[in-house]
Amino acid sequence: MIDISGRWEGRSYELARTKDCAEKPCTLTLDVARCAAGWCGVEVLDAGRKCGSTALKLDAGERSAISGNTLFKGKLELAQGTEPYVVEVSLINWSGDEPKTQLHITGDTGGEFRMFRRTFPFNATLARSGDAHCRPESTVSLLD
Q: What is the DSSP letter of 138?
């Protein structure tokens, strides 16, 4: 199983559309750790000083025969009481002068991920920035 544990942060285009980003960057920070049979991401708030709720729930992932990247499927819920995004998350390893690993999160509402849309309601690109400090609740299940 590919290990994606750690703190991941980056720009969220959905947050940029819904928040005023003039004074502070619209970033999404998630601490990802193992849970159930997959991965869970706890939203990190207040510039890393506060742990929020478990926002991301992913399966164990599988390697794509086409791209060679690892693809995870799951749900992302950034606000309590709102419809969660059904997401596909790609773990991409870039090589070059500065090798880096990124998580690309693409999400759709409506209960199913429709890959052949022209646009998606949620897009974010996150890079690993360190170790995770926030842990998911012990009762988190991928079935929620």
A: T
Per the CB < 8 A criterion, the answer to whether 59 and 74 are in contact is: yes
| Backbone dihedral angles phi then psi of residue 119, each to the nearest 5 degrees | -135, 160
Domain ranges of the chain: 6-130
pLDDT of residue 16: 47
Terminal CA-to-CA distance of the chain, rounded, Å?
Answer: 22
The reported pTM is 0.81
> What one-character-per-residue DSSP string does 66-135 give?
TT--EEEEEEE--STTSPPEEEEEEEEEE-SSS-EEEEEEEEESSSS--TT-SS-SEEEEEEEEE-----
Q: Do residues 38 and 59 touch, judged by C-beta distance below 8 A? A: yes
